[in-house]
């Protein structure tokens, strides 16, 4: 299994137009015939005018085949790409190996937090193992959506996603986590493996599989 996270930075004010095209054209044309759409979001904090979507494939060969077939779809090129391209300033992708299963929250109407960390060179596998070991303690306060180790573009990157019903629940969960002795031990042993930490707070699009 490989996941692809696509991050599009749009021209200011173009998120509503992009999402309308995505819902009414892209999702209708593409469906899940060219990779499975797992989630579709837009940013609310930090860097604005961004749309983020997550896709799953059996492996890199399956992704390459799906992308090639999609590129040959005339409806995709003419009815979607031609209209959406002028809205986009920049595209980024991450190819990621899920280390824990992608798990949808029990309830809908969530805010999602995607956290991505750059580790010291070669430390991504050991950091990933450490957080997997402490995950039962971390999930006492909120449930993990997924944990990844990036294949490209940065092989020293790890990332994870969380869902909260609102920002107040996020604040409370993170405060309780910080006070947990098991989590404190994890930070003491594994925190030094990290160089940089960043996050994105994401709002699901109305048509996102992850709500």
Which helices and strands, and how do they pair?
Blueprint: E1 2-10, H1 15-30, E2 36-43, E3 50-57, H2 60-71, H3 74-84, E4 88-100, E5 111-119, H4 124-138, E6 144-152, E7 157-164, H5 167-178, H6 181-190, E8 194-204
Antiparallel strand pairs: 1-3, 1-4, 2-3, 2-8, 4-6, 5-7, 5-8, 6-7
Helix pairs in contact: 1-3, 4-6
Description of the molecule:
The protein has 211 residues and is an alpha+beta fold. It has 2 domains: 2-96, Alpha-Beta Plaits (2-Layer Sandwich), CATH 3.30.70.100; 97-204, Alpha-Beta Plaits (2-Layer Sandwich). It is built from 6 helices and 8 strands. The protein has helices at 15-30, 60-71, 74-84, 124-138, 167-178, 181-190, and strands at 2-10, 36-43, 50-57, 88-100, 111-119, 144-152, 157-164, 194-204. It is globular. 28% of the residues are buried. The model has no long low-confidence stretch (mean pLDDT 97).
Question: What keyword list fits this structure?
Answer:
Alpha-Beta Plaits, 36% strand, 211 residues, 6 helices, globular, alpha+beta, 8-stranded antiparallel barrel, 36% helix
Outline of the structure:
The chain has 6 helices and 8 strands.
Tell me, what is the CATH class of the largest domain?
Alpha Beta
Derived from helix and strand composition plus strand pairing, the structural class reads alpha+beta
Backbone shape: globular
Binned, the helix content reads 25-40%
Please state the CA-atom Rg, rounded to the nearest Å.
18 Å
> How many distinct helices?
6
């Amino acid at each position: 299994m490989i996941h692809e996270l696509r991050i599009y930075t749009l021209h200011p004010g173009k998120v509503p137009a992009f999402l309308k095209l995505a819902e009414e054209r892209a999702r209708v044309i593409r469906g899940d015939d060219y990779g499975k759409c797992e989630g579709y979001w837009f940013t609310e904090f930090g860097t604005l005018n961004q749309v983020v979507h997550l896709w799953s494939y059996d492996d890199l060969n399956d992704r390459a085949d799906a992308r090639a077939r999609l590129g040959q779809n005339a409806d995709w090129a003419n009815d979607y790409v031609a209209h959406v391209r002028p809205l986009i300033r920049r595209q980024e992708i991450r190819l990621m190996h899920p280390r824990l299963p992608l798990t949808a929250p029990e309830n809908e109407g969530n805010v999602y937090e995607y956290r991505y960390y750059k580790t010291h060179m070669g430390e991504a596998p050991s950091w990933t193992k450490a957080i997997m070991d402490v995950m039962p303690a971390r999930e006492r306060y909120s449930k993990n959506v997924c944990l990844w180790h990036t294949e490209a573009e940065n092989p020293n990157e790890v990332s994870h996603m969380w869902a909260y019903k609102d920002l107040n629940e996020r604040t409370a969960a993170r405060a309780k986590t910080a006070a947990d002795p098991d989590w404190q031990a994890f930070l003491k042993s594994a925190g030094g493996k990290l160089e940089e930490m960043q996050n994105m707070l994401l709002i699901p699009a109305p048509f996102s599989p992850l709500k």
